[in-house]
Amino acid sequence: MAEMTPDATVSVAYGTAARQSVVPVQWHRGLTARAALDRSGLLDEYPDIDVDNLVLGIFGRPVSENHRLQPGDRVEIGRPLIRDPREMRWEAVAGGGVVGQKKSD
Questions:
Q1: What is the pLDDT of residues 42-51, one digit of tens each?
Q2: Which of 19, 57, 63, 89 could form a disulfide with 76 if both were Cys (CB 3.0 to 4.6 A apart)?
Q3: Could you give the residue ranges of the DSSP H alpha helices within 1-105?
């Protein structure tokens, strides 16, 4: 059995524009990013997560599903981009604006 460390946890984070969730998961030696995700319950809570094309990260740094976690790590579940950021910048510049700012009339 994996060695448990009392009070050692990792967290698994996922969010949409409407809602964000960060779930603590008990850490043990050998815990992988995917195992933490599976234990978090977020796959049931957010059925829109594409498990076939998972993008996982730790504090913004991409990692594989098999990445072994350390206590205190935060596994982040990425979402696919809705639009290409380069296209958004080009459109904003063409319209005389800046990305993230609405054009005032």
A1: 999 999 899 9
A2: 57
A3: 33-40, 42-45, 85-94
Q: Which residues contact 59 (CB under 8 A, 6 or more apart)?
A: 73, 74, 76
The helix/strand/coil state of 42 is helix
- Which contacts (CB < 8 Å, 24+ apart) does range 57-66 have? 58/33, 63/33, 64/33, 65/32, 65/33, 65/34, 66/32, 66/33, 66/34
Per-residue pLDDT reduced to its tens digit, 59-70: 989 999 999 999
8 Å CB contact between 76 and 20: no
Q: Say if CB 72 and CB 10 are below 8 A apart.
A: yes
